[in-house]
Design goal:
This protein is an alpha/beta fold and about 270 residues long. It has two domains: about 230 residues, TIM Barrel, CATH 3.20.20; about 25 residues. About 40% of the residues lie in helices and about 15% in strands. It contains eleven helices and eight strands. It has an eight-stranded parallel barrel with strand order 1-2-3-4-5-6-7-8, surrounded by seven helices. Strand 4, helix 6 and strand 5 form a beta-alpha-beta unit. Helix 2 crosses helix 4, helix 4 runs parallel beside helix 5 and helix 5 crosses helix 6. It binds 3-methyl-2-oxobutanoic acid. The site of 3-methyl-2-oxobutanoic acid has 11 residues, from strand 6.
Length: about 270
Amino acid sequence: MSVHKEVKRITTNTILEMKQKGEKIAMLTSYDYSMATIVDEGGIDVILVGDSASNVMAGHETTLPITLDQMIYHAASVVRAVKRALVVVDLPFGSYQGNSKEALNSAIRIMKESGAHAVKLEGGLEIKESVERIINAGIPVMGHLGLTPQSIYKFGTYTVRAKEEAEAAKLKSDILVLQEAGCFSVVLEKIPAQLALEVTKSVKIPTIGIGAGSNCDGQVLVINDMIGLTKGFKPRFLRQYLNLFEEINGAVQSYVKDVKAGDFPNEKEQY
Ligand code: KIV
């Protein structure tokens, strides 16, 4: 008899059922093995290997520079750690826009080389063909509407999107396009809470909000922001649960002091 307790894995069906049951979906990003182990053991439903790795891991100003190879490296590290959560990986900028064959090839590389469970793409009607082609190949797709950081140079600012009627109307129609194309859920980033409520009610697939209010079917945050590793980043939508920047900084200062004083290592810490 096996002594190992079976872990019930979260699938895209689980996520859909959670919306039907009115159970909120908790999603966080992760980019490496150690963090993904902690996040998975913490009971998260979905881990997003976000292209925010470009910002928080690589120090770029935007998400645009990260490559498909780099996303696969991060995703494979996360997948090796995860026993329960659904792992979703961002297709990076330039790996799917305007070419559905390339989009499919990029998605296939992510699935084959990282072992992840789904991919995420930014956009609505303009990426419909790519979304359909990827889903037809058997790869689950999560959409992403509202503030789509890969289009930051089109927007010019990271401010709240779809406050004007025309943009709100496009978002309302885009989410239906994504549902029709077969997406299993959609991220709504930085849009008014009332609009998020309306679109969440208009679809059967779950919406996962970031800066989109409490009426989405789930919530997502960038782990580095949520645990206070990102210095000086405190947008209104962010709830910071820890201040790890301060904690780690304090630990480093203590270590430096101990080494300089000849206090580390002590007798018990040597062979
Ligand atoms: O890349 C990312 O971390 C994301 C989330 C902000 C949703 O897309």
